[in-house]
UniProtKB/TrEMBL annotation:
SMART domains: DnaJ (SM00271). The keyword Chaperone applies. It comes from Alcanivorax profundi. This is J domain-containing protein. It comes from the Bacteria. Residues 1-88 form the J domain. The chain crosses the membrane at residues 349-367.
Length: 396
């Protein structure tokens, strides 16, 4: 069967008619169900377009000299009408073809999205081998369109992880490298990724670089990267949240140490003589907590990123996106923590506030290290030694 028979179209030089016939046949010849038939259809489509291009160039009339052109009002009006009709038809055809291409790619994209959600799909590249056997990608436009849509899905997947979705698994360097070999993201101009978060892009491309360095002939892949990569960016999955019990123990140690320091100061005769009226006694010991919170806030703003005892225990205070905290973060954090002893102090007037304090502590038991005070202040407490171990494992 010749190309016109495969397309079920009479021989023509109309490229739009050929594309419409190709789109009609695609509905009946699914590339995932009939790969050989699709390949024949695709070859017929390419040959028909080439035939149309040759016919159009052969039939193109020479332009008449300027002085011989018919420029009567009637002729000019007919030109205007013809141009308007052609433009409208072309626009409708482009929209129809775009929608048809999206419909064809949709099942494949859904399969990829479902695979990303599985742990094995995000970690092991062999589960993506089905993309290597897709005759659909013989069409350059389909290949480019699918590459762009798949990259958007990966960005959304990684953004969900950054947002705290613990059910998802980060895409491994091996999977990203395998997909990049097929869709050539790393060889695209930077403008192709406009609108995506820069940090997220650097995280993805640094993982591709990680995998590329382990490939024996990665250096001869060809194509120069156009994106200026920064040093390897840490992925959110590398950061380990601190154990709540360890956090509580560190705070108790700090408060006790602060009390011992104050007691030692008042044991100095000169201090006791001049400032004995400031010695905390009984309920005044609760004043140690706001003093400690102020001191801890200053320490968290410093390069230490933690008060002394938490720092010794390997804890660090960071933002939700794992950046150094700002004054706004530490003030909101201190305000939340200050409310708890304040409610206990006010409870002596039988306001029942101790129940609220117990409720906060009870809820925190089920938040897996991301406690209420962390959520309120936009911070996270990181177990730094465990985080460093994860980073070393990932980077070899």
């Amino acid at each position: 069967m010749d190309r016109w028979g495969i397309l079920e179209l009479e021989p023509t030089s109309d490229a739009r008619a050929i594309k419409r016939a190709y789109a009609r046949q695609l509905k009946q010849t699914r590339p995932d169900e009939q790969p050989e038939a699709f390949q024949r259809l695709h070859e017929a489509y390419k040959q028909a377009l080439a035939h149309a291009a040759r016919q159009s160039s052969a039939q193109q009339p020479c332009a008449a000299p300027l002085g011989e052109q018919n420029t009567t009002p009637e002729t000019l009006a007919s030109w205007t009408l013809t141009l308007s009709d052609t433009t409208t038809t072309g626009s409708d055809t482009v929209q129809t073809e775009t929608q048809q291409a999206e419909d064809i790619l949709a099942p494949l994209l859904q399969r990829c999205e479902a695979l990303m959600a599985e742990h094995h799909g995000a970690r092991q590249p062999q589960y993506w081998n089905f993309l290597l056997q897709q005759p659909l990608f013989l069409d350059d436009d389909c290949h480019r369109r699918f590459a762009r849509r798949l990259f958007d899905l990966i960005i959304a997947h990684e953004a969900a992880i950054l947002g705290g979705d613990t059910r998802r698994t980060p895409m491994s360097p091996a999977v990203l490298f395998s997909l990049d070999n097929l869709f050539f993201w790393s060889s695209l101009e930077a403008d192709a990724f406009r609108g995506h978060d820069r940090v997220m892009l650097e995280s993805l491309f640094s993982r591709i670089d990680d995998a590329q360095q382990t490939q024996p002939f990665a250096g001869v892949r060809g194509g120069k990267k156009r994106i200026a990569h920064q040093p390897l960016v840490s992925h959110p999955s590398e950061f380990a949240l601190a154990n709540p019990l360890l956090r509580g123990l560190a705070m108790v140690v700090d408060v006790v140490m602060l009390g011992l320091v104050l007691k030692s100061l008042f044991n100095i005769s000169w201090v006791d003589t001049h400032f004995s009226h400031l010695r905390p006694q009984g309920d005044d010991m609760l004043l140690l907590i706001p003093i400690y919170l102020l001191f801890a806030a200053l320490c968290e703003l410093s390069p230490l990123r933690a008060a002394p005892a938490p720092w010794l225990f390997g804890l660090r205070v960071m933002t939700r996106t794992f950046k150094p905290v700002t004054l706004r973060h530490v003030l909101r954090r201190a305000a939340f923590l200050l409310c708890l002893p304040l409610m206990l102090y006010l409870n002596q007037w039988a306001l029942g506030l101790n129940t609220l304090v117990l409720l906060v502590m009870f809820i925190n038991l089920f938040l897996q290290g991301d406690l209420l005070q962390d959520r309120f202040s936009g911070t996270r407490i990181i177990n730094w030694p465990e985080t460093r171990n994860r980073q070393r494992e990932r980077r070899g």
